[in-house]
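Form 12-C: Joint structure prediction
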Amino acid sequence: MYHIDMQKVKDIVSGILSGHTIENVAFVGCGASKSELYPGKYFLANASRKLRVAHYTASEFNTDTPDWLGETTVVITASLSGSTPETVQANSVAKAAGATVVAVTHIDGSELTKEADYSVIHGFEANYAAKLEKMGYVMALALEILQQTEGYDRYESMLAAFDKIFELAEKSAQSARKDARKFAARYADAPVIYVMSSGASTEVAYSTSICLLLEMQWINSGSFHSGEFFHGPFEIVEKDVPFILLMNEGKTRSVDARALTFLQRFDALTTVVDAKDYGLSGIAGDVATYFNPLMHTAVFRVYAEELSYIRQHPLTKRRYMWKLEY
Amino acid sequence: MYHIDMQKVKDIVSGILSGHTIENVAFVGCGASKSELYPGKYFLANASRKLRVAHYTASEFNTDTPDWLGETTVVITASLSGSTPETVQANSVAKAAGATVVAVTHIDGSELTKEADYSVIHGFEANYAAKLEKMGYVMALALEILQQTEGYDRYESMLAAFDKIFELAEKSAQSARKDARKFAARYADAPVIYVMSSGASTEVAYSTSICLLLEMQWINSGSFHSGEFFHGPFEIVEKDVPFILLMNEGKTRSVDARALTFLQRFDALTTVVDAKDYGLSGIAGDVATYFNPLMHTAVFRVYAEELSYIRQHPLTKRRYMWKLEY
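Section 2 - Result
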């Protein structure tokens, strides 16, 4: 229930390597899926000593296609529905250049799987952990590509963390309801909400802002890296200006902590979702840094749910999506 | 007056290559400087077939330093004052790992130049074109690294564009005053302003949001890629919601155009700064895509000035920066 199929991931990567050398890995998606590709990209770009790693919103990949796209490139695309037009088109762009495509989607047989060389079908509805499978599979693909091409000295640590992270994230989300209700009550009428994080969770802050707040709650929002906060955004801080900080356990914790100190000093309305509070380092040790996004995503989903309840604005409510052509 | 010193850039790169192989190029800065590194990063990541290219806010580079940082890495750091503590520290992190550091700053002899192997001193005050020198030198460094390592088939086109872009950008900025005043009058009381762009200008939208609006005008703001607009942010659009679109000439123009069509359809309060209106393709031809950031930065500076005048809120006004320790 709480595991991704690591053997499937291993087989995909060994299958690719039986016919191709891998020199480039491109992660391509849109919106929430783009942000869910980021932890895999972040890990691989940081840990690999040889691979070239890139991350695109699909429309950019399609229109300003990189000069190096070709047979030594693996393109990992992701779309929950498997029907996002730009991402489906990215598969075609990749295939036309001779690249290998791995599609990660919730819907077996969807458009995204049609031109893909390999498909990974992930869960979503079952529980909070299932909502992490897309992100988890992309991280696992990145890990296996690294291990099977150049090797990775913390490979076993990564596998051990994968074994436990989904159950811990589910448990953490389940335990967050009370704090989430407090958050919702305090932020229900916020005219704008800023979201920050750092490291592998940088794009969890981004998707929290553009998807959960702008798209699903129609609340004004912006997001930025906690380290960038001091180079512009912090001038917007005054008493009661609303901020959410997704605080990391691991390498960039000091960056988040510095931003938190500033928010508290000037009495901003501050909510912290701290991966440390949920015991991340206990299960992920020296690779905890890379697993923050799974914890933040699971726990903040509960916060978003509670915000939607108190505002009587369902997370599925839309003005435009599903309603018209654009 | 309107040129950067290309010979100096060539000499720096040939100097590096006389002692080192270049396999990795990392662009490291904070805030506006981080965004001004992006066009060079964007060009090199797209056009190089061999180099590994990365872009960091300095605090992340310092705390979660990539595993591959070493003797085959060139780190390009940038800071206007040359005193940004995180960026100065990034020089130390890079040097400790054996990397070569090129510092790009306005202040000769500043902290940023102390540990650097090479320094580039750029203009700023003289005019709008001078404010582009930091970005231009970083792009020129990227171009020379590419040309001197693996060669680049549009090298001459790039040099020709560099020859003319600064004068065109200055002229464009000078001609934008009237439109900028109209913009300022319409946006003076905006409760929030969203900023979008794509391609090489993606981080011009970002710095417009976090520096010009949040930092220098204390106006609520968020920014995102024009292609990401349809995957979340567009649900915030209603009549009169304020948007700025920095429209690109070149590869990603269709992505920007699609966002514009949507904004107009739903009567958002929309301002477009279009590089095409200022004749970018006339001087940059098939490499126009890469020069959009210089045009957008120059022209929008005038818009920001006019906004500051009508709001009687100088661009230099701060709550925290220069006033306290943080």
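Section 3 - Comments
Residues 221 and 266 of chain A are 20 Å apart (CA to CA). The first helix of chain A runs from residue 6 to 19.
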